[in-house]
Every structure is written in structure tokens, then in C-alpha cells.
Amino acid sequence: MSSANKGVGKVEVTLKWDPSAAGAPDRDLDIIAAVYRVEEPHGAPAYLVHFGSRSPDGTITLQRESSTGQGFGFDEAMTLELNRLSPAYGRVLVGVAIQQGGGRTTFGDIDNALVLVKEGYQELDRYDFADLGDATAVTVVEFLRDGTGGWGWRRAVRGFDADPQAFTALMGAEPA
After folding, report:
1. What is the signed CA dihedral for 19, 22, 24, 27, rounded to 10 degrees?
2. Which residues form the TerD domain (predicted)?
3. Is pLDDT of 4 > 50?
4. Distance between CA 142 and CA 156 in Å, rounded?
5. What secondary structure letter does DSSP report for 174?
């Protein structure tokens, strides 16, 4: 993490995509946050926030959830209040998974998918999935607690060929 990426507090991750063509099955993308304990940053997550859930302490919430991509602007929005997260947690990883109920769907099958990471009005990052078209799930951003207790962030794009449930178990593992 560079010094330009330090000191985030309250972050919003938003997701949008175009709806399916008329007559085609709906495509459902979901934002997923995995929270890891300081002593186990790459093991199993302490907890997950996804599909309309929220963190046990209310610091991570999914405000908007779409199952079709219909609407104006961003279809899903997750707020992460990192500055309020317990010191027991040192890593938060955010990804996007495609529900696979209508058959295997990849990001290459979805038009105009875009994830945006921002703090207040400042855009931190945006990612359009173009280089991971064969993936069914992708990690996009990682937030890490630094030595002073503050939070930094970095782009953490990594594709997976997994359904959402399997993705939540795989997403936080150290890259091979």
C-alpha cells in the first residue's frame, strides 16, 4: 500500500450491470465482504456480509441489492465503516459473485458490469471485469489495518470459477 492509499474510514462499494435481454434469464450479481481476524488474515473469514445481510456490529451493511441489474445507476451498494470495526479484525476483502441458478454465467456474459469503490465523494478505484471475462466470481478490493490501527486499501483483483458459496471459502486464501 502506498501512502496515498492510507487512512480510509467509511467506504462505499457499488456495483452495476445491464439487465439481461428480453426473454433471457435474469443475471444476479452480488457484493460479498469477508472479514478476517488479525491473527488469521488468510484463514476462514470470521464472518461474511452478503445477500441483504449485515455485520454483527452493524459496521458493514448492504443497502441495495438487485437480482436483475434493472434500475438507474448502481444496483447494489455496500457501506463499510472500517473506522468503527473492532481491533480484532485486520483484513476485509470485498468481491463480486454471479449467482449460477440459470446455468454457468461468467463476467464475459454480462454487459457493462462495473464496481466502484469510494470514500465520500472521492473515487478510490473502479473495475469493469473486462480482463476476467471467464470468471464467475472476482475479488476486487482489500482493506488492511496498518500498525497504527488505521486502514489502507489496495486493488485485489483475482478471478475464480466458483459459485457464490464456494467463492466465500476461497476468496481470502493467499494467492498461489
Report:
1. 10
2. 3-161
3. no
4. 6
5. P
